[in-house]
From TrEMBL, chains A, B:
Pfam families referenced in this protein's UniProt entry, alphabetically: PurS
Protein name (record): Phosphoribosylformylglycinamidine synthase subunit PurS
EC numbers for this chain: 6.3.5.3
GO biological process: 'de novo' IMP biosynthetic process
The organism of origin for this protein: Aestuariivirga litoralis
Keywords for the protein's UniProt record, in alphabetical order: ATP-binding, Cytoplasm, Ligase, Nucleotide-binding, Purine biosynthesis
Name of the encoding gene: purS
């Protein structure tokens, strides 16, 4: 099973990389661009075939290693 | 409209960050973990309300700035 994990900064946490991209898009001539937020994305191959167990396992991975839950949210998609 | 963009390394491109996470997960006691690949994730707020035009605009942003199409793939989701 493959887990797809999106890690995003929580609302209110400053995102200077996102701001830089926002500025760069404006300089490149893209109009109507509002806020840009940058996050991280991970794909993890799992041996586990049970969806509920896989979700538990990936949740533990996010809490312990992949996301900094003080400032980041994570979203898990299995498939 | 909000565009959600996933940028991933193309198959065959080495991913040392992913490998490091794979190793770290093993050290933390997570079993059955196969390949880990790290990518990037972006959320872009757009003034454009037409879905087809928004997709064209985001595609151009990816080609020009957000993704390095030599080594990366991108996937756009609008909503």
């Amino acid at each position: 099973m493959k887990a797809k994990i999106k890690v995003t900064l929580k609302t209110g946490v400053l995102d200077p990389q996102g701001k830089a991209i926002e500025g760069a898009l404006g300089h490149l001539g893209f109009g109507g661009v509002g806020e840009v937020r940058q996050g991280k994305y991970f794909e993890v191959e799992l041996a586990e075939t049970d969806k509920a167990k896989a979700r538990e396992q990936v949740k533990a991975m996010c809490e312990k290693l992949i996301a900094n839950t003080v400032i980041e949210n994570y979203d898990i998609e299995l498939g």
